[in-house]
Amino acid sequence: MSRLDAFLARLHAQKAILEYVAREIAGVPGPVLELGLGNGRTYDHLREILPGREIFVFDRAVSAHPASIPDGEHMIVGDIRETLAYCGPRVKAQAAFIHCDLGTGDPTNDLARGVWLSPLIRERTAPGGYVATGVRLDLPDFDELPIPPGLEASRYTLHRKR
Ligand SMILES: C[S@@+](CC[C@H](N)C(=O)[O-])C[C@H]1O[C@@H](n2cnc3c(N)ncnc32)[C@H](O)[C@@H]1O
User: Fold this and answer.
1) 41, 45, 80: which to mutate for ligand 1, most atoms within 8 A of CB?
2) Closest CA to 32 of 40, 17, 20, 21
3) How far apart are CA 55 and CA 137, in angstroms?
4) Percent of the chain clearing pLDDT 90 (strictly above)
């Protein structure tokens, strides 16, 4: 698969998975955590499909489109390895949904990220909460759910905490 095809598959899957999870978390309290603001595309979509849900966004820098930048209280700047571990004073509740868009496409780098990300994401997810991730995570107290059909090429996985 060319990188262009892989990119398109990822965008297509992101939209479908975010919309699926937005419906599923209707009864799960807690904020949404967006890991990786990037250009702000998925953040912008999340706030559109989840009006009224508090969304905290993490990135090491703010370089998004100006129309897709969270307010200062909800933009958590720094290395996620530290900010996710110590975000408790701002993100007071466990998350109903964590969207992890930190994949690099490099298998070694992604494997290493999965190792430090997994325990942080486990700790920050509410019981019954969802995680959608482009980086493979080790989440033993979660069920891995099938992703909506046709989206397998995205390499996204979907998990729900027991
Ligand atoms: C693929 S982009 C996110 C794209 C975004 N979701 C969108 O739709 O526009 C990944 C982002 O994660 C950020 N990132 C990667 N590793 C990080 C880390 N360890 N700490 C903080 N930010 C990180 C990068 O700076 C980059 O902006």
Assistant:
1) 80
2) 21
3) 22
4) 86
CA 16 to ligand 1 centroid distance, Å: 20
The DSSP string of the chain is --HHHHHHHHHHHHHHHHHHHHHHGGG--S-EEEE--TTSHHHHHHHHHSTT--EEEEESS--S-GGG---TTTEEES-HHHHTTT-TTTS-S-EEEEEE----S-HHHHHHHHHHHHHHHHHHEEEEEEEEESS----TTEEEEPPPTT-GGG--EEEEE-
- Domains of the chain, by residue range, sit at 3-161
pLDDT in tens, 38-93: 999 999 999 999 999 999 999 999 999 999 999 999 999 999 999 999 999 999 99
Q: Which atom of ligand 1 is nearest to the CA of 113?
A: 19
3-161: CATH topology is Rossmann fold (3.40.50)
Ligand 1 centroid to residue 126 C-alpha, Å: 23
CB 125 within 8 A of CB 94: yes
